[in-house]
Each structure stands twice: as structure tokens, then as C-alpha cells.
Amino acid sequence: MYNELKKLAPTHTFDWYVKWIASILLIIGVILTSNNIYPMNILFHAGGMFGWFVVSIIWNDRALLVINAVSLAILINGLVAHYVK
Q1: The pTM is what?
Q2: Which end of the chain offers a freer environment for a tag, N or C, measured as fewer CB atoms within 10 Å?
Q3: C-alpha to C-alpha distance for 44 and 53, rounded to whole angstroms
Q4: 3-state secondary structure string, 6-43?
């Protein structure tokens, strides 16, 4: 019964690499945020969000598309505000 686990998602495809790289960037962004390293944390978060935005386009997943597009726009707005000051 539990002897064989079936993978639902294919591995080593373009979207597989993008989602894992984006996830690592987001984890680094969270670590930088927890250590109050600004604005590097925002740069890593933006990179991760952009990666997941690309994956959401490939998967045609509207929920992921909306959350990552809005989050990316907010992060870019924060970066622009930081560098314009």
C-alpha cells in the first residue's frame, strides 16, 4: 500500500529549476529580513517573487500569478522609494 510513492510533478524541467531557485532566494530573503539586512533582503525577496511569477505563468495558475505579481510590485515600489531618497 505505502511501498510505492508516485510523484505528481515532473522533475528536472525548466519550471522545476525556476521554482527551486526562487524558493531558495525567498528563504535567503527571510534570513536577511530576520537579521535586518536592508535592502538586500528586498532584492532577494524580489528575485524569488519574480521566479515564482514566471512559474505561475508556465503553470497558468491565476492565484499564484496574482499574489506574486502584487508582491513583486510592492517590493519594487519599496526599492525605488529606498534608492530615490
Answers
A1: 0.86
A2: N
A3: 14
A4: CCCCCCCCHHHHHHHHHHHHHHHHHHHHHCCCCCHHHH
**Length of the chain, in residues:** 85
Residue 72 near residue 53, CB atoms below 8 Å: yes
- The span from the CA of 74 to the CA of 58, in Å, is 22
Question: pLDDT (tens digit, 9 = 90+) per residue, 19-64?
Answer: 999 999 999 999 999 999 999 999 999 999 999 999 999 999 999 9
CB atoms within 10 A of CB 83: 8
Q: Is 72 helix (H, G, I), strand (E, B) or coil?
A: helix
Spatial separation of the C-alpha atoms in residues 29 and 26, rounded to whole Å? 5
